[in-house]
Amino acid sequence: MPNFKERMAYGPASSICAGRRPKVAPPVHENRSAGGGGDVGGIFLKVCQLWRAGGGLGSEEAAPAASFERVPHQRSRAIRRLPVEQGLIGRAHARRAIGVHKLNQVMVADGYLRRLAFRFVVKVHRNRIEGVEQPAIQPKRQRLLTEERRQKIKEVIEQQGRITVDDIAVKFKVSAVTARGDLEVLAERGDLIRSHGGAVRQLSPTVDYPLRFKETIHHAEKVRIGHAAAQLVKPYQTVILDSGTTTAQVARQLKSARIQPLTVITNALNIAYELAESENISLIMIGGILRHASSSLVGPQAERMLQDLHADHFFLAVDGLDPDEGFSTPDILEAQLNNVMIRVSSEVTVVADASKFGRRSLSSIGNIRCAQRIITDNRADSQSIAKLRDKGLEVILV
Question: How far apart (Å, rounded) are the C-alpha atoms in residues 13 and 4?
Fold first, then answer.
């Protein structure tokens, strides 16, 4: 139906048919094109799109103008059958098509055109952009099967090294829940590593990845491991924390547990920063050469300093854990310092998530028997767990 401005501009059809002067703008010139612009007063009528009736005008088109004045529904049917080009029609077009020439009859035609536009066009197409052709209807894209979509995700991971949940949702037109499910399945198959907000390519045990990157992968598992490790610590003990993201979670849990008094020795800057404000923890920082990838201090100076110390408990983070070969890390200096930490500690607990199992890195830290227990998550391989227990190690699954 016409809006308020249109009703005020043209007036009701009954008043026009009764011969009263309608509140209208001057008539438009005959040579105005149907696709031209118009103002608020309605100088030029635009209709977004009317369906072709197929075959031109009906028999009522030949009726004289007087019959259109006497029988309004005949005007409506005639206007509805107008052949329209490009979905646009103007007043002059309407006058010529239905044989209406007088001013008030043109206004009646305009009123019916507007009613038809609102009734049949706006309701159907929901598009009021004037003077713009409707875009072509795009064919519906066929949805990928689940396995096809997961294969495409693997290809993106292999090419770019990473993918986010939002990337999957936009690229494959699926929900975030479906995207997360695909990543979980692919992670269980070993095709990728699940990360916070997405996934990354499988890590190489020989590559020393930056600490910020490692913090984003297997985060939930590391939190559970850190909580279990903190429960092993008693008051008045001295604890060594190796560098790494899993041992950083151990430090965070020790801080919240408020075990006091407690002494912590570490070579990791991120762990020292985490514990710096804990008044119940006496912190000893080992000096040496800074490794930028792990934000840790290593080298001969760190080893000499450790040789004069003793710890009750050492929490060791590793990059590779093989039941036959032992523990390993990609950096030689880090491995040498870890070996000294093992020698000065009464008890060694390895903290490693399931992704470390079955991997061998560049530098060996020590064999399996150098540790008393291993804390890992419940995704660890059952055969590896059985081998470790056969060798006398306590395995805690979280």
Answer: 14
How confident is the model over 326-377, as pLDDT tens digits? 999 999 999 999 999 999 999 999 999 998 999 898 899 999 999 999 999 9
Identify the CA nearest to 356 among candidates 331, 384, 332: 384
Q: Which token pair is 65?
A: 């103008």
Residue 7 exposed, middle or buried by CB count within 10 Å (0-12, 13-18, 19+): middle
Q: What proportion of the chain, given as a percentage, has pLDDT over 70?
A: 62
Q: What is the pLDDT of residues 254-296, one digit of tens each?
A: 999 989 899 999 999 999 999 999 989 999 999 999 998 889 9
Which H or E run contains 321? strand 320-322
By C-alpha distance, which of 32, 352, 350 is closest to 222? 352
Is 371 or 104 the better-scoring residue by pLDDT?
371
Describe the crossing of helices 146-160 and 176-189 by its angle, rounded to 10 degrees. 70
Tokens 């008539």 sit on residue: 27
Distance CA 239, CA 248 (A): 13
Q: Is the peptide bond before 261 cis (omega within 30 degrees of 0)?
A: yes
Instruction: State how far the Cα of 291 lies from the Cα of 268, in Å rounded to an integer.
Output: 10
Beta pairing, strands 262-266 & 320-322: unpaired
Show the tokens assigned to 335: 């491995």
Contact 276, 253 (CB under 8 A): no
Residues whose CB falls within 8 Å of the CB of residue 53, separated by 6 or more in sequence, listed in order: 80, 81, 82, 83
- Greatest alpha-carbon pair distance for the chain in Å reads 115
Q: How confident is the model at residue 317 (pLDDT cuts 50, 70, 90)?
A: very high
β-strand partners of 164: 198
Radius of gyration of the chain from Cα atoms?
39
The Cβ-side half-sphere exposure at 185, using a 13 Å CA radius, reads 13
Can you list the domains of the chain with their CATH numbers? 4-125 (no CATH), 146-200 (1.10.10.10), 211-397 (3.40.50.1360)
Q: Shortest CA distance to 375 belongs to which of 214, 221, 165? A: 221
φ, ψ dihedrals at 161, nearest 5°: 85, -10
- Compute the half-sphere exposure of residue 386: CA atoms within 13 Å on the CB side of its CA: 3
Q: How far apart are the first and last CA of the chain?
A: 67
Count of all residues that appear for the chain in the document: 398
